[in-house]
Amino acid sequence: MSSKTFGGIPEAYAKLETSKIVLIPVPYDGTSTWQKGADQGPEAFLHAAENMETYDIETGTEVYKQGIYLADPVLENSSPEAMVEAVHKISKTYIKKNKFVTLFGGEHSISIGTIRAFNECFNNLTVLHIDAHADLRKTYQGSTCNHACALYEASQTTNLLQVGIRSMDVKENTVMDFDKTYFAHEMVNDEFWADSVIDQMTDQVFITFDLDALDPSIMPSTGTPEPGGMFWYETLDFLKKVFSEKNVVGFDIVELCPNKLNKAPDFLAAKLYYKMLSYKFMNENVADDYDNTYDEVGQKNNILKFTEDDEY
Fold this sequence. Notes:
CATH architecture: 3-Layer(aba) Sandwich
Order of helices and strands: EHEHEHEHEEHHEHEHH
CATH class: Alpha Beta
Oligomer: single chain
Largest sheet: 8 strands, parallel
Number of strands: 8
Low-confidence stretches: 288-301
Structural class: alpha/beta
Radius of gyration: 18 Å
Strand content: 5-15%
Shape: globular
């Protein structure tokens, strides 16, 4: 990764010890089955972020001043299983440091490790899955760590809510909880769908956001684009409600498959990431002189399963 800090922010706001936020790039594309290139997503995302204004008009904040530490990328690609374990391990390490942990993929199989780490660390976790695809296969192409299996484990171990779904295999009907699944063709005619999703959440929420949830007219740069997706402002309105009403404990964004001739989707991904951070921290003050030590300000509402005596 060429970027030294996220968005080119001053290094004073990018130190691990004083940053509230950790960003872990995972440039992995080992199991995608159509368009390749998601392994280039983190680099394109970080490059686009360097050209983004860091003042958010809507919230009136500069969230980077909370501190954003850009971690080393997870480069494990010997097998899908090894990659999932590497993501699980590094995610849990930073969660235990009481950071707000975020990841940028890479294809969706990375989320198996991410969700596993958050589920081990937070009680009664809701996983909010925003995606065009159900991703509920138990195995695919000989592996349980395929992108098509990204949410199977979560469906068995967490309170899984799926939003924007418009593509799935018939066998996934046997796994899917239809009361907690919001199909795109139904959402378009239901003005209360967002409230319904939030009503089914527990207090603590992890968000996994597959960029192909968005309509390909605004997000064509994915490995498997599907027509009929969500649009920018309805997506932001929904996310803002989730962050306002629930304790979002972390998130990942996956499946950016960059196109060298069209940089707009890369910039959208960077803007989406920054908007989500802005919603998370919009009501928190920034300490003076870069002294925004996370242990003091902290995620006050998080209920962690581990104690301070646990090893990192």
